[in-house]
Amino acid sequence: MPCPWPVTVHHAERIVDLELPGRSFFKFASPCPFMVDPPVIDGSIAEWTHAHRMPDLCGIDGKEPFAEFYMAWNEDGLYFAFDVLGDAAVVVESKRPLRGDGLQLWVDTRDVRDAHRASRFCHHFYFLPGKGKRRAVGGQIRLRRAGAHSRMNESRDLSVATKSRWKGYTMEIHIPAHALTGFDPEENSRLGFTYLLRDRKLGRQFWSADEPLPVAYDPSLWGTVVLAK
Asked: What is the pTM of this model?
């Protein structure tokens, strides 16, 4: 479904029509539930309930999601899980992790809504699914055009696991508090957040905005999660 408002860009005597997702024109906030007993990061989503499921925003653009996405928190950090329900391709490019299939997460521990450049409180993580003998892996990359950068984390700082099925797969993730610069739920319970899940067969599933908008490095295009307790 194209953007409900026509967007026309004039560039070098060319006219380019952009189809922007309708949800890009709105601001979203969703509660993130507290999880007393953290899940074992083994790739199973058996410990996750409907209460942890993030709201599906795909319907705003007339699309159906191909994955269910879950999120929770406690003092030890943030927890995520998702369930890819379709016939996933799972084509991973470990040397170019943003080009292949997998999940990308953006987190701003200060949720500054009017900033177009990332601060040291902004983070960009990626998680690649495992398949066969290949294990799932996570990592962090620097945000482009950032005014300042967060402390970079090694892959070993991030916990991730995948379970494969005949069709689809599940993944669990833990980003510990020490890997999130400025993470302090007592002082600030609002986080800037968005995600992008890519699969070569199933497409792109995202939360707040997607290309051609610069969501990869502009925190003002992210949504908000409120750490509820």
From this structure: 0.88
